[in-house]
Amino acid sequence: MAETASQSTATHVPTPDASASPAGPCDLVTVPARQGLEAVDILRRGGAPAVGPVLHDGACDTLGFLVPPGTAAGWDMPGSACTRTDGRGLRLPEPPELPGPDGAGARPADWLLPPGDSGEVTDPAMLREALGQAARLIEAADGCR
User: Strand, coil or helix: what is 41?
Assistant: First the structure.
């Protein structure tokens, strides 16, 4: 059966503690670096309440956004992946490893935006919107060449 809109990322509600501390369990949304950098800019310019910690892999191929635990259960954004971490291997502020763009093998990572004192992570609904807008901007820019 096809997934209903109520099960999609657009309407998914993560676990009740949506402001989960990065020191605790959180999920990780991984996207191509170009789209991720655009999304960071969009979120910062849009007055988002918080852009949580963001990682980049050593080769700068991917960016990883820390999001509330439970996000992975309903994440369905094409061109991205959301990994449920349950805190496994995630010891902050030490950056964890990011999955490679092909999904195979982990790569060392470093912080693009390190965890702050607020303990906030990126809101998944706002991230989804920013990633969609970033994809459209990239498509438009590439179409102008």
Answer: helix
Angstrom CA distances, 22 to 34, 68, 140, stand at: 24, 9, 34
Q: Which residues contact 119 (CB under 8 A, 6 or more apart)?
A: 19, 20, 21, 22, 23
* Neighbouring C-beta atoms of residue 132, cutoff 10 Å: 17
Where does residue 99 rank: exposed (0-12), middle (13-18), buried (19+ CB within 10 A)? Answer: middle
Q: Which two tokens mark 53?
A: 């910690």
Backbone angles phi, psi at 138, to 5 degrees: -65, -45
Q: How confident is the model at residue 60 (pLDDT cuts 50, 70, 90)?
A: confident
